[in-house]
Specification:
The complex is a heterodimer.
Chain A: H1 2-13, H2 15-28, E1 38-42, H3 47-61, E2 65-68, H4 72-80, E3 86-89, H5 95-100, E4 103-118, E5 128-129, H6 131-138, H7 148-153, E6 165-169, H8 174-186, H9 188-193, E7 206-208, H10 210-220, E8 224-229, H11 230-235, E9 242-244, E10 250-251, H12 255-264, E11 289-297, H13 303-319, H14 321-326, H15 334-347
Parallel strand pairs in A: 1-2, 1-3, 5-9, 6-7, 6-8
Antiparallel strand pairs in A: 3-11, 4-8, 4-11, 9-10
Chain B: H1 2-10, H2 16-57, H3 59-65, E1 75-76, E2 81-82, H4 85-116, H5 119-132, H6 137-164, H7 179-203, H8 207-215, H9 220-249, H10 252-258, H11 275-282, H12 289-321
Helix pairs in contact in B: 2-12, 3-12, 4-5, 4-7, 4-9, 5-7, 6-7, 6-10, 7-9, 7-10, 8-9, 9-12, 11-12
The chains are: A alpha/beta, B mainly alpha.
Chain lengths: 360, 322
């Protein structure tokens, strides 16, 4: 008690104390968490929401969760090496790797990718596209805005004869993965010629750095089409398009249409929750939705810390929805949360063979 | 004691008292020279360590693609086909254009500042140019993306195309983000280095050189070109090499305006890619070991290209001085 009152004044008076403590923290941080800290590392896409969650969680419970956004692949490598308590990845691992590395994987929060355009006279939500046309544009097969394939989807809309400039994310990102995964699923030619990855080789167009770069380039090039994270399209009032989903309905990107995609997905039958939410059934589903994933060891070396990590994720599922929505991420539907928490109970066990997670 | 030492070093005299001092002096200077040598060896060690680390990190890619990596134009992370040619091309072309432009403008600015500008104006302008060197590259990048790219797409590009459109360098669709815009941004970023160093060199030229030239009937212009510039050309080349090194390795600013497309295109209006940009863009989310290894090999190539360029600069200096 006395120490906690003494501390702030000590810190205020002695810059060297701050220096030493931050040095100490820096030395301790990368390791597998010292005194009661939970450490995680991985994807950059969900970093803003994870950072908010850990801050709020610390304020409420006093438990420190350290998350370093070092990129999905490095996050996976760290959790495989067991140097962090959990890893985070935008690209789900396949069941074989999960078994081999004894990891459990689940979706934590969702986001969506939204195509944006810059066409003179076209307002947000006016232009209608589908996956085939989008794939054609990025394959450089559809090169003019008044192409019959686009006109067929937009009867009554005056389309200019402008050349199409496709803008893509040049940096490796979860956004690229979700977008190319969607187009690969829709279009066989896209799958064979471009494929799906966090970075791919597009035949044409220009590459921009991050959401900022894609948005800026699209905004400044007449006839451009790009794709950005939902949060970014929303905050910057970009000219988004309506997409035709699997059920044949044209939908707008909204929280509800992302949640619909997650709710309509078949989670229970997929091993390791390896569900990519692109092109899901249901009339309300936004077709380019994706989740970002958490990875934890099935046999944690330290069950106490593992339990603390699960407590945090449980808290985030139940109380973090508002925070996530404020940052334009989409919380998982209750149905999925139930499935995930049952998997925790069933599959994560301590050295004594007992489940680490006994419910909240 | 100190006075004695100074006296001893100033006028070495044989004698019993000063031998001890000379001994101390010798030890002192040995330590000093040792430190000088040590700091140079440190650089050598760092460069060697860097090269070893890069070769080790790139071993997968070196083994898989061999020497063909240098001229393959494929860069496809999905099929894991990697080649460095488009990146080497983009890096060298943007840096060479930037250096050519920056050397001309930078040296002219330096001559003006040192020889012709009123003292006050010269001091303030010089300070401003040096300040440009302290602007973070992300600021240059954002400015390039939001301001310069539209200018290139709407004004500079069409103007160049209408006059020089018969050359392959100025043909095709004009994207705002392209090799030319990247070269312009790099030019801006390296001008301060060239100007600041050249100006300081010119200022250091003894006044009697100028007086002699003027006394022989040279105009101020002839004095600047025939007397001042030749005596600092060695320094200018040194400054240019320093600037070139910065242009080769520039990452963020180039990434934001070059268009990031791994293709080799003769047109400066087409998007390109540089080595540093692709490493920055793809390193964090590189998904396989081979992919990561190919990126590290690109880093190795950048190191080699830098060494070659600096070596060539040295050679040029030697040829010019002869």
């Amino acid at each position: 008690m006395a120490a906690s009152r003494l501390w702030p004044s000590l810190v205020r008076r002695r810059p060297i104390v701050v220096l030493l403590t931050s040095l100490f923290a820096a030395i301790c941080a990368p390791g597998p968490a010292g005194a009661g800290d939970v450490s995680g590392a991985g994807a950059t896409f969900p970093y803003p929401v994870y950072a908010e969650w850990t801050r709020a969680y610390k304020a409420q419970t006093g438990v420190n969760v350290l998350y370093q956004a070092i990129g999905s692949s490095r996050g996976i490598a760290r959790v495989v090496a067991r140097t962090v308590d959990f890893g985070a990845s935008d690209m789900p691992l396949d069941p074989q790797s999960l078994t081999q590395d004894r990891l459990l994987q689940w979706p934590m929060v969702m986001g969506g990718v939204v195509p944006i355009v810059n066409l003179p006279g076209i307002e947000p939500g006016q232009l209608k596209l589908d996956g085939k046309v989008l794939a054609g544009m990025y394959l450089d097969a559809i090169t003019k805005w008044n192409d019959p394939a686009i006109a067929a989807l937009n009867p009554g809309l005056a389309l200019p004869g402008l050349a199409i400039t496709t803008v893509h994310r040049a940096d490796g990102s979860g956004t690229n993965f979700i977008f190319t995964h969607y187009l690969s699923g829709i279009d066989a030619r896209f799958r064979s010629e471009i494929g799906e990855n966090t970075a791919v080789q597009f035949p044409g167009g220009v590459g921009a750095d991050g959401n900022v770069g894609v948005a800026a380039l699209t905004r400044r090039t007449a006839g451009a089409i790009g794709y950005v994270e939902y949060a970014y399209a929303l905050q910057n009032r970009m000219t988004y398009v309506l997409l035709r989903n699997r059920a044949g309905a044209f939908v707008a990107p909204t929280n509800a249409s992302f949640q619909a995609a997650a709710a309509n997905a078949d989670w229970s039958r997929s091993a390791g929750f390896q569900v990519l939410l692109t092109d899901q059934p249901g009339r309300e589903s936004w077709p380019i939705t994706g989740a970002t994933f958490i990875l934890v060891p099935r046999r944690p070396a330290n069950p106490v810390i593992a339990r603390q990590a699960l407590d945090f994720f449980d808290w985030a599922y139940r109380n973090g929805g508002k925070l996530a929505e404020r940052l334009a991420y989409v919380p998982m539907p209750a149905k999925v949360i139930d499935l995930v928490e049952r998997a925790w109970h069933r599959e994560i066990t301590g050295p004594d063979g007992k489940p680490v997670w006994a419910g909240s | 004691m100190t006075e004695q030492a100074i006296a001893a070093s100033a006028t070495p005299r044989p004698g019993a008292g000063s031998r001890k001092l000379r001994q101390a002096e010798r030890v002192g200077s040995a330590i000093f020279v040792g430190m000088l040598r040590g700091s140079c060896w440190l650089f050598l060690l760092i460069v060697l360590g860097l090269a070893a680390e890069l070769i080790w990190g790139a071993r997968l890619s070196l083994r898989k693609f061999g020497i063909g990596f240098l001229w393959s134009t494929q860069w496809n992370p999905v099929t894991e086909q990697f080649g460095a040619a488009p990146f080497i091309y983009g890096t060298v072309v943007t840096s060479v254009i930037a250096l050519a432009l920056a050397a001309i403008v930078g040296v002219m600015a330096a001559i003006y500042l040192a020889e012709f500008a009123p003292r006050r104006v010269g001091a303030y302008l010089g300070l401003l140019i040096e300040l440009l060197a302290a602007v973070p590259s992300i600021v240059y990048g954002l400015w390039g993306l939001f301001v310069l790219a539209p200018i290139v797409a709407n004004w500079i590009g069409p103007a160049l195309q209408s006059v020089l459109g018969f050359l392959p360098f100025f043909q095709g669709t004009i994207y705002g983000v392209n090799v030319l815009t990247a070269a312009f941004i790099l030019t801006l970023m390296i001008i301060p280095t060239i100007t600041a160093i050249t100006r300081d060199l010119i200022v250091a030229i003894p006044m009697r050189f100028r007086e002699a030239a003027l006394a022989l009937g040279a105009t101020p212009w002839e004095m600047a070109v025939k007397v001042v510039l030749p005596s600092v050309r060695r320094g200018i080349i040194g400054a240019s090499m320093l600037a070139f090194g910065r242009a080769l390795g520039e990452t963020i600013a180039a990434t934001m305006v070059i268009g990031n497309r791994p293709v080799i295109s003769a047109s400066l209006f087409a998007p390109g890619y540089t080595i540093a940009s692709v490493i920055a863009n793809e390193f964090t989310e590189a998904t396989s070991d081979l992919y990561l290894s190919a990126l590290i090999e690109l880093g190795l190539i950048l190191l080699v290209v830098s060494i070659l360029v600096i070596g060539m600069g040295r050679l040029m200096v030697r040829l010019l001085i002869r």
